[in-house]
Amino acid sequence: MGRTELTVLVTGGTSGIGRAVAEALATKGCTVLATGRNPDRLELAERIPGVRYLRLDLADPAGPDSLAEELGDLGLLDSIDVLVNNAGESQSGPFEELPAEAIERLFRTNVFGPVRLSQLVLPGMRARRRGRIIMVGSMLASFPLAHRSSYSAAKAALRAFATAARQELSPFGVWVSTVEPGSIATGIGLRRTKYLEEGSPYTQDVTTMLEHLDANERGGIPAEKVAATIVDAIVAPRPREFYSVGSRAPLPFLLKRALPRELVSKIVAAQHGLKR
Fold it and tell me: Which of 53, 151, 195, 202 is flagged as catalytic?
């Protein structure tokens, strides 16, 4: 946006990528509002100086509207310059065995919540004819992986919302971008929700995939590198529609265009110990 004295709302701002974004923007002099499911539990040493913490549980259908009401009471809702939709749930499990309620919660958290929150801050951005909305996706949206179907689908849906919304909003000076990280060393594997029935015929496959996935994430790029890409999208006069970072990007996307789709899927599977 050509300036850094911005009011920024970062969801999932208490850990990982969200925390790194909040810290980077606070250092630049932005007014930063960071959300978490339980921000009151943060110790003083865990809080970033100058950052205001607010509660938001995206798994709660009323969560975004409750946050918007609080922001309105604080006189901040219509002054949000940038929304970074970072909060989300990582989920794994065989397609056949994923509980319906787990899929529904994942989509509330990773898709419906960010979409609703974006809708709530847009009137202020559109009225001022400037704004940024950053959707933090995943390279699994572009390269789906076995036993990660729900997560891949949710991130792909979020990217589609962002791409279409960008076309609608750019005439008003509001730019929507998607950032797709690859493997990131944030410890998210420890928080991933996992579904696997006892005696499942998929047990060996799932175990192998998770072992490789967790190893890739432990060796992934730091959250700060993703945060730097997000900051670039925020301050650029005309941000790109799509950014990828980590996992040797942009090479995988070049190969995706050059190779047959089924071959790309086999390569993705092989990288996670699966033979297809």
Answer: 151
